[in-house]
Design a protein that fits this description.
The complex is a heterodimer of chains A (246) and B (333). Chain A has 246 residues and is an alpha+beta fold. Chain A is built from 6 helices and 16 strands. Helices cover 18% and strands 30% of the residues of chain B. Chain B is built from 5 helices and 23 strands. Chain B has helices at 35-44, 160-163, 200-208, 279-283, 298-330, and strands at residues 2-7, 13-15, 53-56, 62-65, 69-77, 80-82, 85-86, 92-95, 99-103, 108-116, 131-132, 137-138, 150-152, 168-170, 186-191, 211-217, 221-225, 240-241, 246-249, 255-258, 265-266, 270-274, 290-295. The chains are: A alpha+beta (246), B alpha+beta (333).
Chain lengths: 246, 333
């Protein structure tokens, strides 16, 4: 494990970072331990930098809230006569930290996602309204009025963790998760909002449903959202929802 | 030229080495549970080590071959028979056209791999032949194999000269897999980034107590039962990537060992990672079996994994040569 706080590239990186192995086929760099936009932006800058570097032997690069994980081909790297694949990748990672342009200009996509907030679909709206003593309409309005950042994709193919929702509607995960949440369900857990790409067990508080497929294996790009995207929810009527739903 | 499923198995699927390059989209790698057994099955029939294979659990499918084929079975001993001929593991076998391969008894292990010479004809998804059960994509129609499914293999060859009117011919050699799996129930691990946060008592328990594999265990992960472990302080862990073999500590103090179909990210403390070289052994362990963990160093884990791979390559050279020579000498083309 290695800690560091250093001037990286042309920009000072605030806070410490930590590099540790995730088994012998992956290494993680942690840039912080909080969910915040600034740290996440740094993670994504590093993600793009490393992706573009095309380091031989790297098979996956996984951005999360405040960390980045590199999965690598141990056998392939060792066959290139490196005595330690871990050291090789760690060196590449440290070089990337030095050279990364933290203000990289990867264009942010803005994706509009239609959502129907009808109570027949937003099955936790009533309970949330009672708990928070605010009207269902206010919950809905607070939800769609903000543009959200996609912090990371995980848990399921195409499940985007987005944030941060207005304080008035932050709600902890359900104590008793549902055995089945329908695909397209839009939910809130803590400060995050997300959309289930499949029918799945789940503990998020469901406030609506989108007719759009967050994941479709047959598409050229099966996953709709990526880390770093901005998402705006567009409220639609139940009628429109039924028309749009495939 | 295909294999037809005439009776469905409980969880049989087409897998290769896994889907790589898309974990940042939540698409987990999947792939064979026991990489060693799948590799040996492939090398015995002259395939690339990472060629797609059929992964069989018990009770397994009953398979009808509608063409002659060279096959090999490795991993779990499921009492394989071709018609009424018992078929050994770790040996290439020719199966005659219109014969049935079935699995009669769970003798040892948990997953058996069927490789066919020249490989199965599978349309790739995301660059892989593995089945992503979660995404319902890849492999054969994105799911476990069902009755009436027909899985095609790429090439048919004529082995009539070798079969000599029998339903099956067993080649006269066997791959020695003893060096590829360590004996006993010790599973070697390297420490995870939250290992140090375990309290002293828990650190001791982790490396000295036995843990049982519960029945809530499958391709996603193995739920373990043992003395509960505790961190010094409860802590919120933010979701971050996990790996196959990652050992997560659940809120109730029990452990879960992540396997092939693991989620790409998780928020539970990671106290260890099972070394790659021992994952095949773990993949062949079953519910109610006990194991113990042993900590080794990162570099040692890497060296052991590399050595295991070199051994597979040596085996591949030896088996390729024998197979080619034998077929050339005895087959009538």
């Amino acid at each position: 494990m290695c800690k560091g706080c250093t001037t990286l590239g042309s920009m000072k990186m605030t806070g410490t970072y930590r590099i540790y192995p995730l088994g012998e086929t992956a290494v993680t760099i942690e840039l912080g331990n909080r969910i915040d936009e600034h740290t996440n932006q740094q993670v994504l800058s590093l993600f793009h930098h490393i992706k573009n570097k095309k380091i031989p032997g790297v098979t996956d690069i996984i951005p999360a809230y405040s960390s980045l994980t590199i999965v690598y081909d141990v056998i392939g790297i060792r066959q290139q006569c490196h005595p330690s694949a871990y050291s090789f990748i760690k060196q590449e990672l440290e070089a990337a930290l030095q050279n990364c342009n933290w203000h990289s200009s990867t264009k942010t996509r803005l994706i509009e996602v239609p959502v129907c907030y009808d109570v027949s679909l937003g099955i936790d709206l009533q309970e949330m309204s009672e708990q928070k003593q605010i009207s269902i309409n206010e919950i809905i309005q607070l939800h769609y009025s903000k543009t959200y950042r996609v912090f990371m994709i995980g848990f399921l193919p195409g499940f985007a963790y987005m944030g941060t929702v207005d304080k008035k509607i932050t709600t902890p995960r359900k104590q008793h998760p549902r055995v089945k949440v329908l695909a397209g369900s839009v939910g809130i857990a803590g400060e995050q909002t997300g959309i289930y790409p499949f029918d799945s067990p789940g503990g998020w508080n469901i406030i609506g449903q989108t007719p759009v497929q967050m994941f479709n294996a047959k598409r050229e790009e099966p996953v709709l959202l990526q880390a770093g995207d901005e998402v705006k929810f567009i409220p639609i009527t139940l009628y429109k929802f039924d028309k749009l739903k495939i | 030229m295909s294999i037809r499923i005439i009776k469905q198995g409980i969880a049989d699927s087409i897998q290769d080495a896994g889907i790589s390059g898309y974990q940042h989209l939540g698409i987990n790698p999947a792939g064979v549970m026991d990489v060693v057994a799948a590799s040996v099955a492939n090398l015995l029939v002259g395939n690339d080590l990472k060629e797609a294979v059929m992964e069989l659990h018990f009770p397994a499918s009953i398979l009808l071959f509608d063409e002659q084929a060279v096959i090999a079975l490795c991993g779990a001993d499921l009492g394989a028979m071709i018609n009424d001929i018992p078929i050994p593991l770790n040996t290439p076998v020719v199966i005659e056209k219109n014969c049935v391969l079935q699995f009669t008894k769970l003798n040892r292990g948990a997953r058996c791999y069927l490789a066919v010479k020249y490989g199965f004809s599978i349309t790739q998804w995301m660059g892989s032949c593995s089945t992503s059960i979660k995404a319902k994509a890849g492999g054969f129609e994105g799911r476990y194999l069902m009755k009436h499914d027909e899985i095609h293999f790429r090439v048919i060859d004529n082995y009539t000269g070798i079969l000599q009117n029998k339903d099956a011919f067993i080649f006269p050699w066997k791959a020695d897999t003893t060096k590829l799996y360590t004996p006993g129930n010790i599973i070697r691990i390297i420490t995870g980034d939250q290992f140090e946060r375990l309290n002293d008592q828990s650190k001791k328990i982790f490396v000295s107590s036995p843990f049982a594999i519960t029945t809530q265990s499958d391709r996603m992960g193995y739920r373990m039962k043992g003395e509960p472990l505790q961190l010094q302080q409860q802590q919120q862990i933010i979701s971050t990537a996990v790996n196959r073999g990652t050992i997560q500590l659940l809120p109730d103090g029990q452990l879960i060992l992540l396997m092939a179909d693991h989620q790409t990210t998780g928020g539970y403390p990671r106290i260890g990672h099972i070394i790659r070289a021992d994952l095949p052994k773990l993949a062949q362990m079953k519910p109610n079996q006990l194991l113990r963990f042993q900590i080794i160093a990162q570099q040692e884990a890497e060296d052991i994994f590399y050595e295991q791979h070199r051994h597979l390559l040596q085996l591949q050279n030896a088996c390729n040569l024998r197979l080619q020579e034998y077929i050339q000498k005895h087959a009538l083309h």
